[in-house]
Specification:
Pfam families: Cellulase (PF00150). The chain is of the alpha/beta class. The chain has helices spanning about 5-10, 25-35, 50-55, 65-75, 85-90, 95-110, 155, 160-175, 200-210, 230-235, 250-260, 280-290, 335-345; strands at about 40-45, 80-85, 115-120, 180-185, 220, 240-245, 265-270, 295. The chain has a single domain (about 40-345), classed as TIM Barrel (Alpha-Beta Barrel), CATH 3.20.20.80.
Amino acid sequence: MKKLTLFMICLLAGLSTIHAQQRWSKEKADAWYAAQDWITGANFIPSTAINQLEMWQEDTFDPETIDRELGYAEDIGFNTMRVYLHSLAYKADPEGFKKRVNTYLGLADKHNIKTILVIFDDVWDPNPEIGKQRAPKPGVHNSGWMQDPGYPASKDMANSPELKKYVQDIIETFKNDDRVLLWDLYNEPGNSGKKTESMPLLKNVFAWAREVKPSQPLSAGLWDWSFTELNAFQAQNSDIITYHDYESPDWHRRVIQLLKSHDRPMICTEYMARTRNNRFSNTLPMLAEYNIGAINWGLVNGKTNTIYAWDTPIESGEEPVEWFHDVFRKDGTPYRQDEINLIKKLNKKNTK
């Protein structure tokens, strides 16, 4: 059973002494959040891509599928997608990469959807390679997802001029683009056993982003409550508090209550794992109650295989009895109509 340590309670109460340079004022953060509709949506990758590289490389960039699947999101009232970039796709073709990001943002805007762009990521395969990506492993959750920049690159390249150029060029290009809602600078820093090895890159990506002075807020989501040093830096340097929670509602509510002590707007940028009792039915209404942005994992069942649970592969590749993540099948059919009805209701979308 997980326990909230005294240190964590103090941390989440904002008692850390880490100095947050150039962070937005509380007043600016509150005004920004008040100007938004309730932020609701999903982590998005088209069903035809196994990972970020397949999404963004020229040969496999798929605007037709992106357009169609963002239409599914618009139909149920989702207004925000969280989308991962990848530095290797940029390195291979900087101008083409930025053009494809612009194309994606145009398609999202067509569907009245804003985007949270994610820069770095410590989750899954530590050895990303440009070029043709491998085929999915049947029944295995995210069998082809790639870290960015990988490992040991996240440690060895923490001060890299190459990574700094990437971060600053991307943010500079879109820093005044109102189609970009927020910059999520580092997904789950310290994951994959890295822990504080990720701290130098985490600190640098905030510094590099602040130098550009984007109009959008910066954040890096809290996700593992045992990572006290990383959590303190993330919480004290994020303009908007973002976090991940895949636990049941009783635990999630305690996390919300503690994070609320920061007195900052909040967005849950990852949630919804049905077999862990974290469902739309018991979590989305709670997030709406607290006026917390709600970004679930997964929109359309596809090559990422996220209908399968993290630790429960199905070697045959047959559909699990209960999906772990995702909302729609490829043809736009909902996995569960009752979930769609709830999402539409909370998004004030016509349910007829």
